[in-house]
Amino acid sequence: MNKGQGSLIEALQARGMRVTPQRAIIFGAIEKLEGHITAEEIFEQVQQVNPYVSLATVYRTLELLLELNLINQTNFGRSQAYFALKDHGPHHHLVCSECGYIEEFSDTIFNPVRTELEEQYGFQAHTDHLSIFGICKGCREKLAGG
Ligand SMILES: [Zn+2]
Ligand SMILES: [Zn+2]
Predict the structure, then answer these.
(1) Each residue of 92-144: pLDDT tens digit?
(2) Who surrounds ion ligand 1 at CB < 5 A?
(3) Ligand 2 ion: Cβ-proximal residues, 5 Å cutoff
(4) Distance from the CA of 56 to the center of ligand 1, in angstroms?
(5) Which class would CATH give 1-86?
């Protein structure tokens, strides 16, 4: 049977870390929500299971998961941070500054950039969950049409 990528609980236990009941609830919420989620969305989900878990605990747990490299974050140019599980795969986002449209694109697009940076500067670039801002196709067509 394929067990997939394993849960966040298993990932923490594999690192010899303690999984408190509060953490377990927060992990469950993150895994249930999928895709890109805010701390507030996680908090709402957690509250349905246990109303005594605070937003501060959610933030602390997210910080821990970021440190452990199990989740990543981007802000899409907004005030809130959006979190995604790492096993969602390496990807980035195109964010339209006009209409807020967000599209996902594969990390492989950066392969030539990484190669160039390494060859020219001896620099190993870590491109991880970037938001690239600009104008989407729809908005460009609208702008062009006047
Ligand atoms: Zn993403
Ligand atoms: Zn747009």
Answers:
(1) 999 999 998 999 999 999 999 999 999 999 999 888 788 899 999 999 999 88
(2) 84
(3) 96, 98-99, 101, 136, 139
(4) 23
(5) mainly alpha
